[in-house]
Amino acid sequence: ASLPAPPHKMGERKVLNKYYPPDFDPTLLPRNRKPRDRQIEVRIMIPFTLCCSMCKEFSYRGKKFNSKKEIAQDVTYLGIHIHRFFIKCPRCASEIVFRTDPEHADYILEHGATRNYEVWNDRRGEDEDEDENDVMKALEKKTHDNKIEMDILDALDDAKTLNARHQKVDMDKVLEKLRKEQESGDARDKIELDDEEEELVEQTEFEKNVRRISEDEEKARERERELVMAATKAAITGGVQAQPKRLAGVLVKRKAEEAADGEGSAKGQKTELAGLLGGYSSSSSD
User: Fold this and answer.
1) 133-154 burial, b if ≥16 CB within 10 A, otherwise e?
2) Radius of gyration (Cα) for the chain, nearest Å?
3) Any bridge partners for residue 69, and if so which?
4) Which residues contact 114 (CB under 8 A, 6 or more apart)?
5) Helix (H) or strand (E) holding 85
6) CA proximity to 109, closest of 91, 96, 119
């Protein structure tokens, strides 16, 4: 009996890892060498307004074209590559060529069209002609350039002197000085902290003394209040002998004072009565 066919499995759609056999030799692969003057398709906007030489169609500045770009092999400027662009006229499809001009920060139209008139280009040419013809202006420009160059050289010398001074500095001495300054600052902070702690301790002790004095006064008042209450209760109930000796002494002393006050008041009353009787008898005899 034949076995059933295995179910169909779909392969991975986006393959990330490829299989390399054991006998794979990468040196046998052909190298894909690209020519240096190859053309690259880019999307650009033309940097100036131009007129086609064949059909007189105007293409204005900023219009987008599908172009081909290549690096010019026959000309460079101060090591800067010059790029050449090839576009087609949108009306007659004739080829138009222009390239970069790094010397003047501009573009140069080479073939297939004429560049439209631009006022600023004429002004730039007039300024260049005036600079070439005017000797005094050229001398002023040269003097200004020399002054700028001297300022740059002075700044460079200052930077070199500063770097040399930094190289002569001993980092160990600098670190030691910083450590001493930090220690002196810590000691100063500690002294200030000690002064604050002393003030805090003095204030705490003063508060404790005040609190202790107030507590002692309160206790003495409470003791006197208790004694007075006990004496009053004993006087009311008549149980002086049952009270302690100290309390009995206090009560006896107070009673003696009250008796003395009572005798004095009685004598005063008798004297006043005798005076009144004397005055009455003298008045009756008259």
Assistant:
1) eeeeeeeeeeeeeeeeeeeeee
2) 61
3) 40, 85
4) 50, 51, 53
5) strand 80-88
6) 96
3-state secondary structure of 65: strand
Percent of the chain whose predicted confidence (pLDDT) is above 70: 64
Count of H-run helices and E-run strands, the chain: 4, 8
Phi, psi of 213 (to 5 degrees): -60, -45
Query: Of 260, 264, 262, whose CA–CA distance to 272 is shortest?
Result: 264
C-alpha span between 37 and 72 (Å, rounded): 7
Q: What is the pLDDT of residues 105-133, one digit of tens each?
A: 889 999 999 998 887 777 666 666 666 66
Give yes or no for a contact between 82 and 43, defined as CB atoms under 8 angstroms apart: no
CA-wise closest residue to 252 among 266, 231, 223? 231
Q: How far apart are CA 80 and CA 41, in angstroms?
A: 21
Mind giving me the DSSP string for 228-241?
HHHHHHHHHHT-ST
Name residues whose C-beta falls within 8 Å of residue 47's C-beta, 6 or more positions apart in sequence: 61, 107
Cα separation, 46 vs 69, whole angstroms: 13
Is the pTM above the cut of 0.70? no
- Give me the phi and psi of 51, to 5 degrees please: -125, 125
d(C-alpha 201, C-alpha 109), whole Å: 93
Residues 87-109: pLDDT tens digits? 999 999 999 999 999 988 889 99
Q: Which amino acid is at 41?
A: E
User: Kind of pairing, strands 80-88 and 58-59?
Assistant: unpaired
Structure tokens at 210: 């005040």
Tally of CB atoms within 10 A around 265:
9
* Chain Cα centroid distance, residue 71: 50
Strand partners, 108: 99
